[in-house]
Write a structure and sequence with these properties.
By secondary structure, this protein is mainly alpha-helical. The chain has a domain at 54-146: 3-Layer(aba) Sandwich (Rossmann fold). The protein contains 6 helices and 3 strands; from the N terminus they run H-H-H-E-H-E-H-H-E. It has a 3-stranded parallel β-sheet with strand order 1-2-3. Helix 3 crosses helix 4. It is elongated and about 65 Å long. It starts with a helix and ends in an 11-residue tail after the last strand.
């Protein structure tokens, strides 16, 4: 009987060894499955959609009716907006002491005019709305540029 137990113990050990081998094989198979497969490269062809001309959306009705509806005041060189942007310019000058300022999206240049009233600051404005640039007063328009700009002549370091 003692011998039978030993034979059974050996068989159990063999079974345990076999199970371990199967687990290792399974793990190796999973590792292979986790590797990314190479996908064939396809040439992508995309048609470029024409970009809308946003400068046409920012016209007299935008600065007049839309602003008046949203704020109660049409946008432009009026006492309300000049007082507002004058306060903004004074605060920025007080906090940062700039000598040159670029107002990107300047519209009609109300903030640019407020900065330029201070003799220590030279301000330039850019806006892609040709209407807004043309609606600026003559004395401000010289500091404004229209079109899609990425840099300005007066604000280089």
């Amino acid at each position: 009987m003692a011998r039978k137990k030993k034979d059974e113990d050996v068989k159990k050990e063999e079974v345990v060894e076999e199970d371990t081998t199967e687990e290792e094989t399974t793990d190796e198979a999973e590792e292979v499955a986790d590797e990314p497969e190479e996908k064939p490269k396809r040439k992508r062809t995309t048609k470029k959609k024409p970009k809308p001309d946003l400068s046409k959306q920012y016209d007299a009705s935008y600065y007049g009716e839309a602003y008046k509806e949203a704020t109660g005041h049409a946008y432009g060189h009026t006492p309300v907006w000049e007082r507002f942007f004058g306060t903004v310019a004074q605060r920025l000058i007080s906090d940062f002491s700039p000598t040159k300022v670029l107002d990107a999206g300047c519209a009609m240049g109300v903030l640019v005019a407020a900065f330029n009233r201070n003799s220590r600051v030279t301000a330039t404005g850019v806006d892609f709305s040709e209407y807004a640039i043309s609606a600026a007063p003559d004395d401000v328009r010289g500091s404004l540029e229209g079109g899609n700009k990425t840099s300005s002549r007066n604000c280089s370091p």
